[in-house]
């Protein structure tokens, strides 16, 4: 087998630590220890990150095409990116600038909103299960089943014992997904409270940003410490070896985008999707085609 | 009201005729008169087209964001791009290189395949109706309800009187969509039979293209004149003033991409989406935010 990505060096020398390692939530992780303005593992500046992001877009795009092609030959691999964050942390920018580099035909993006009445009448995982990516695709969950243990916990939207039950249910669900061939990349973008204030302030100052502001954002902001606690519990209970969390400091958008791109590329490199062998006889088809 | 696109000249001087006009299927149109290697209305070469495509990507992206933003303020406008073509004509490239420039959060791409048993048990429009874009979104139909009068006609997949009924049903359906606020951009990419042969040949020569080849492609190719006739009937019966067809010569991929981008930009300019006014009191929200 040829080395499929020989033209791509594994990582530039600006990464002193592999981003998967530098950002991964392991035993003893404390969210309060994360500096939202830091750039763990990356020693470059904005201009370096932007240059790497552009290079990475080509690799990500090629890997996605291979992933899709491989699925036409029967491979069951898929990738699911789960994005969670406080408002304004930059989920939208990740989708636009990282996922946006990939052929839209290969991506399933879904933004989970407040559950509908029908969705609420089912188990919390019901609406999520129907949105998981099929073989060959990159799924993007913009918010996810984790809302049910984040806002769900902070605002007591379900009884305490039901909230408790959900952590285990999530782990079981994700384990099933992984066993079916889906690599799950779980990302929490961490901004500081001051940075959120500044971004919300900007939305109230620019007529082209007004529509992004929602008075409810301030209601949630007032519960900031409670959300941080709820995230800590999420990390403690659902950062598993099969589907670990990554906390990405996101005060610098350029770092967050580069880091998430790298996590996606690593997931795809791990799959190492191959162009499938033809399911037809090439010589026969060449002859048929030549006769037309 | 400000001129929203003052920074974008209407069209570069390389277009002698507006692409919407140059490519539109009007009365007396004959598909056989179209030269698939021509570039109607455009006097530039590949390098000019590629430069214009890059500029247009920025405008398309901005217009899409405005379209989406306007919908959050109650606007009902949407855009639906319908792509039809013979195999290898470049639908995929349009999605990747034209639609791909737009934020994936604002695009609903759907590739219609051979209908399932459940879909076949409904009217032919049933599966299409559930896929139309909601307000603020750009929908892309990669193949569409037109398959039901193209392969449907050529391969006699339905009784003749049912095929006849469908043209009127399509016009009624599209009229309803337009009345709800959806601009429909219908595009047929026209390649020559020789060009298709060369592109299929390439797929049989390159291991990274094998997966794109399907022996059924040659079966359809053998019916080329029948498909051309079926397209002619589609144009005669469904190129309406509300939802006209555009035939885009596509032997030059660079021209087809530029032309489709222009048609999309024109549709969005026609909507002229505006940033919505805030639905909250800015001063009140600034004070609430400042107090946090």
Fold and architecture overview:
2 copies of one chain form a homodimer. Chain A has 292 residues and is an alpha/beta fold. Chain A is built from 12 helices and 5 strands. Chain A has a 5-stranded parallel β-sheet with strand order 2-3-1-4-5, with helices on both faces. The longest helix of chain A has 27 residues, at 46-72. Chain A is globular. Chain A binds chain B through residues 69, 72-73, 92, 95-96, 99-100, 103-105, 107, 109, 111, 140, 142, 197, 200-201, 204, 207-208, 210-211, 213, 215, 218, 221-222, 275-278, 280, 282, 285-286, 288-289, 292, and chain B through 69, 72-73, 92, 95-96, 99-100, 103-105, 107, 109, 111, 140, 142, 197, 200-201, 204, 207-208, 210-211, 213, 215, 218, 221-222, 275-278, 280, 282, 285-286, 288-289, 292.
Quick structural overview:
The structure is a homodimer of 292-residue chains. Residues 1-10 of chain A have low confidence and may be disordered.
